[in-house]
Amino acid sequence: MRDFFQLPPDQIYLCGNSLGPLPRETSGRLANLIEAQWGRDLVRCWNRHGWMELPLRTGDKIARLIGAGPGEVVVADSTSVNLYKVLCAALSHQARVAPQRSIVLTEDENFPSDLYIAAELCRERGFELAAVKEEAALSAAIDERVAVLLLTEVNYRSALRHDMKNLTRLAREAGALTVWDLSHSAGAMPLDLTEAGPDFAVGCGYKYLCGGPGAPGYLWVNPGLAGACVQPLTGWMGHDRPFDFKQQYEPAPGIGRFLCGTPPILSLAALECGLDLFLAAEPLGGMGAVRHKSLGLSRLFMETVKAWGIESGLRVVSPAEPARRGSHVALSLEGELSGAGYAVMQALIARGVIGDFRAGEPGNAARPDLLRFGLTPLTLGFAELARALGHLRDILDRREWRQERFTKREKVT
Ligand SMILES: Cc1ncc(COP(=O)(O)O)c(C=O)c1O
Fold first, then answer.
1. 217 C-alpha vs ligand 1 centroid, how far in Å?
2. Most informative mutation of 75, 81, 111 for ligand 1 (most atoms within 8 A of CB)
3. Annotated catalytic residue: which of 61, 85, 157, 207?
4. In the structure, what pLDDT confidence band is assigned to residue 234 with cuts at 50, 70 and 90?
5. pTM higher than 0.85, yes or no?
6. Is 114 an annotated catalytic residue?
7. Nearest to residue 52, comparing CAs of 256, 226, 274?
8. What pLDDT sits at residue 149?
9. Residue among 303, 395, 294, 412 nearest 351 (CA)
10. What is the pLDDT of residue 395?
11. Cβ-contact 273, 23 below 8 angstroms
12. Residue of 83, 86, 113, 200 best suited for mutating to test ligand 1, as the one with most atoms within 8 Å of CB
């Protein structure tokens, strides 16, 4: 599958969990869309080239990766905006059917954007946002006061993976709705939303799915609930018949009501190129094979670093148990390396090994600085990963990270 991607030969790319690599197909597809479609057929493209269908067509392709059915997923907006839409819909639903429930339950370690959106929404709607500090406290906190359980399946820092099926079951039994953020799961492991049965899910298109920078996100609503949901951004694209231009809003019957404005066609076409590669991988074992290789890659990475011993200054923080981790590996830094994480990553990047750095919270041992390495099985090989580890070891042995040039902070870390 690697041949279907365009990757710089002199780099080892370990950041596909942040911005997926470029499918070879994408540039030609976009050039064609711009020149042969937009440039020639202009506004007629919406009908002639199926532009109007793109949000649902790409949604159907994502559905195959996350175990959802056709017509259940729509691609639109950013993950943050989609989270806002589904959380509003969930709160409105609970306010109607279970007005005594007053809590949105999440965890401190959830992705900040999810927490920010939830905090403001709770404030506005009069709900309490309860964020547990430890994963172990989650199941005990799911009770009859909880309106919505809001979680990210795979943690963006540690790669810790929640048991979505079990937590969803506990929430359902307690009468709470569930919202899952799949940004670090979809495209990295098989998912089965139909079996797990949550109520809402959202996720990013630009990470593992290789949709390109700023690719739109996706949104799934349990088909039993979609037609009864009220979402807050009632734009014309979510109308049942937008081109009737009625004064009154009438939501589309199912997931289509979660659209808001005009779809970003260039971005959707780019995302479709990434998705098509995942579908092309189906005859080779699909997401099961992707996951199998991902776990092999992360085991190689983690066991190598563990074998160096803690005197190397690096500690693996991602879970050792395969079922409990996603597809990236996070390392914290100790001793001489503490406080030097950013510089270590810059030294690696200077050698062509591209990972990223996630700052922790000074003074909070539970939230250390992290070196993050994304492992994308469609493009990354074992030998290449071993070479990356060799560079890391070398940088530590030579104390290369101490060079002044590696301390200059950029906007994106
Ligand atoms: C888990 C998770 N949720 C949400 C987001 C935010 O996505 P967006 O910037 O598309 O709103 C991110 C971005 O990295 C993420 O990692």
1. 9
2. 111
3. 207
4. very high
5. yes
6. no
7. 256
8. 98
9. 395
10. 98
11. yes
12. 113
